[in-house]
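Example protein
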Amino acid sequence: MTGSTIDGNIVASVIKSRVKKDVENMKSKGLLIPSLATILVGNDPASAIYVKNKQKAAADVGISTKDHKMASNISQKELIELIMKLNNDPDVHGILVQLPLPEAINEANVINTISPSKDVDGLTQTNAGMLFNGRATLVPCTPLGIMQLLDYYKIELESIDAIVLNRSNLVGKPLAILLLQRNASVMVCHSKSKNLVDKIKSAELIVTAVGSRKRFALNSSMVKDGAIIIDVGISRLMGRPVGDVEDFESMKEKASWITPVPGGVGPMTIAMLLSNTMLAASQTTANTQPNMTKV
């Protein structure tokens, strides 16, 4: 058998087109212009590229951005004061703090300063709790993007045995909850899990989000025939971006569905950020109700 490729670029394009139409509709009615505030602390090149890409994607669909570049020695107090100012700015509808932050700053304290209604990354304790209770509006972008991919390709999740190789607040935990809400049976594994290969071999859906080839690589001998492989990992090998899957072509021969790296989950993360920003903006007016969560 040869598996089918799950193309994140195609699905992301569909979502971006819908966001763009909703933005144009909102503007044409004279309601407001959706706006995303980005905060970048320090001079990390990778983080700077991520923020730039998010700002460009926002501009492409008509969402305005407010760029805040802060010195690496900014104090936690100063950073929190900036976020509180943005919370109170009616012209800002989404706030994104690019992670990681410098070690001297407590990320949890900073993230939880963001107003839940403007938390387009879905990481505040309030939004995490809403997700846990099945009532979330703003959901973390990468897990939400994965669910959109599975839905677009009509991959049935009910009663499926799934394994998530990640336990972070950004990916693993929220994704596990989303899968449980769709009646999948979910196992979450991590660096301390025992008999990991045996656990992986038992899964019908494998979501791998380790992001370090030095620590972990998923190869075709570790998965059962017909497994669905969602590769969220991203690292660099000999100067090129790679995922957690060791050999895409050999894995494709074993899997029923598989995401490539790049071009799989990555484009969906930005697309869902735009969708969340539009959704946050729509909450400020009762005159528009965009449907940004289905493709």
Notes: The chain has a mean pLDDT of 94.
